[in-house]
């Protein structure tokens, strides 16, 4: 793991049952090389050896991911690679048998310097990419440190290509002569998306536009080009993830107060939005969690 002042993000936002995930599989995060930190949130590594299939549910962040998968039983020639655009809907995946996944989660807006087209073109899509990428080593091979090093090498060698060609290095690779530059619009989009995530008072796009002396129309174009979704969607996704954290926390929750705090019209509006995003009411979601015995919950239906 790379040495740095702080480790990878440790919260569980977006993972709808993190306790069960960690019980069923080995899930870890690693930081990228220092030069990649402006673009990449973290690497995520999952290994499993299951007697029974396991379904994991994730409410995606407004981020692009690279996903590399391999079943060790299939031999060194196996493996897949894909770029996953921002997912608008609840993502479900069933893991079975044995396997490994190594992933790259970019920061919101951080994938744009690596991609020659508006990121919105990837939204809701998963596009296959070549599996043999860097020095013959698949990103799922080796120890955690070796897997992270392979991902570092891949990204450090990546340069955007013309729109008619895949924006991914071939197996021969591209000399690691430096990262693509984060132009001012990319830096702005990343900063604004980060502000939405960190500042719970950001509840409306027009307020964000006024705060930064710009227009909602310009923010919409900027976010679609660099993040892949509009700023209103980013605000709603981060706020519903906060509501999910409240539901998962146990104990009594004042949902009317939470609704007001997160910018919903009322408690009923929040619960409808919660159900639309997760497929469950807060109460049903809380009951679905893998919890230690004795946890107490009090949620609206």
UniProtKB/TrEMBL annotation:
Pfam families per UniProt:
DUF6597, HTH_18
Question: Does the record's keyword annotation contain Mitochondrion?
Answer: no
Q: Which GO terms describe its molecular function?
A: DNA-binding transcription factor activity; sequence-specific DNA binding
Highest taxon of the source?
A: Bacteria
- Name the keywords, alphabetized: DNA-binding, Transcription, Transcription regulation
Q: Which residues form the HTH araC/xylS-type domain?
A: 188-288
**PANTHER family, A to Z:** BLL1074 PROTEIN, HTH-TYPE TRANSCRIPTIONAL ACTIVATOR RHAS-RELATED
Protein name in UniProt? AraC-type DNA-binding protein
């Amino acid at each position: 793991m790379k040495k740095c002042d702080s480790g990878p993000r440790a919260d569980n936002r977006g993972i709808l049952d993190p306790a069960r995930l960690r019980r069923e599989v080995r899930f870890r995060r690693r930081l990228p090389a220092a030069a990649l930190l402006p673009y990449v949130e973290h690497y995520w590594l999952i290994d499993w050896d299951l007697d029974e299939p396991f379904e994991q549910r994730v409410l995606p962040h407004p981020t692009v991911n690279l996903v590399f998968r391999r079943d060790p039983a299939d031999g060194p020639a196996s493996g897949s690679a894909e770029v996953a655009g921002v997912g608008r809907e609840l993502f479900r995946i069933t893991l079975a048998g044995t396997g490994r996944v190594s992933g790259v989660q970019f920061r919101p807006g951080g994938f744009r310097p690596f991609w020659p087209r508006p990121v919105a073109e990837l939204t809701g899509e998963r596009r296959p990419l070549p599996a043999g990428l860097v020095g013959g080593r698949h990103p799922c091979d080796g120890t955690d440190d070796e897997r992270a090093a392979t991902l570092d090498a891949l990204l450090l060698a990546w340069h955007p290509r013309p729109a008619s060609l895949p924006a991914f290095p071939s197996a021969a690779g591209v000399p690691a002569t430096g990262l693509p530059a984060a132009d001012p619009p990319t830096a702005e989009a990343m900063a604004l998306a980060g502000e939405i995530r960190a500042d719970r008072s950001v509840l409306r796009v027009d307020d964000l536009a006024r705060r930064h002396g710009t227009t909602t129309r310009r923010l919409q174009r900027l976010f679609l080009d660099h993040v892949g979704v509009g700023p209103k969607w980013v605000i709603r996704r981060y706020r519903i993830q906060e509501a999910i954290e409240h539901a998962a926390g146990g104990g009594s929750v004042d949902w009317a107060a939470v609704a007001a705090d997160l910018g919903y019209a009322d408690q009923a509006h929040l619960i409808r939005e919660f159900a639309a995003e997760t497929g469950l009411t807060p109460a049903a979601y809380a009951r679905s969690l893998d919890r230690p015995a004795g946890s107490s919950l009090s949620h609206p239906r």
